[in-house]
Amino acid sequence: MKKRSRSQKSQKPTVKIKGIQERVTIGIDLGDKTSRYCMISHGGEILREGQVTTTKAGMVEAFGCLGRARIAIEVGTHSPWVSRLLGSLGHEIIVANPRQVKLITESSRKDDRLDAQTLARLARIDPQLLRPIQHRSEAAQTALTVIRVRAALIAVRTSLVNTARGLAKAMGERLPKCDADQMGVLRAESVPPKLRQLLEPLLKEVESLTEKIKDSDREIEQIARKDYPETALLQQVGGVGPLIALTFVLTVEDKDRFQKSRDIGCYIGLRPGAAIRARGNRNYESRRKATPI
What we know:
12% strand; elongated; five-stranded mixed beta sheet; 293 residues; two-stranded antiparallel sheet; disordered N terminus; alpha/beta
C-alpha cells in the first residue's frame, strides 16, 4: 500500500460539495460563551449552520480542519484573538464594523443565526460592504493592556481618595489638599484619631495602589525604550513622556495607512472645536467675498 507523504498529511482539506471541492464563506456571530456560524457555498447555498464555544479549543475544532475559507466576524470583545487564531489556521479573515452596516444594525429580524447568515452573504458578495477593520497586532494589544491596567488603577485610586475626602467632610473634618499619589495614612494626622482609624483602610489601599501605579510606569517606560524606540522622538515635545508617546504609537500602529499626516488627528479624535470651525468658515466667506469675479 502506497504511503502518504508528510506534505500530503499536513494539507488541509476543503469542503466537498456534490463531488467537487469548493471554497466556502463563513459568517460567525461571536457571543461571550457560544457563537453561531453559517457556512455558504460560492453560489450562496447554505451548507452548514451550528454553534461553537467561544474558546480557542472550540474554534480550532470547528474551523481548523477546513481548507482556506473566507470568514467574517463582527468587531467586539473576542474579535481580536479570534481573528488572529483563525488567520493562523490559513483562513481569510474579515472583521466587520457593524455600526457602518445598516443591514446588520437596523435589521428588524436580529438574532444570532440570522446575523451569521448576513455576515456570510455580505462577505461572499463583496467584503467591502462590511467596512472591514484591522485589529492591532498581539504585541501592540499586550502593550496597550499595560496602559489600560494603569488607567484602571488610577480610576480606583481616585474613587477611594474622593470617598475618603467625602467621609471626612461629613464628619466636619477635611483631609489636607494634595495630589492623589501623595495621599496616605500620614496625610490624615491632622484629623481626629477616631476618624483617622476609620479612614485608615481606605488610605492604606490608596498607598498600595500608588505603588502599583509606579510599577506600571516603570514597565511602560521599559516597553517604550526597548520595543518602540520611535517614542523617543515624540518625547522631545514638551510635556510628552513615555506614557503619552507609547499610547500614541500603539493607537496609530501603522502610520502608512494614512495618506496624509493630518488624517491621524481625526483618527484619534483630535479635531477643531465648534468655535474654531466657525471662525474658519467666517474667514473663508470673507475671502470669497473679497475675491473679484
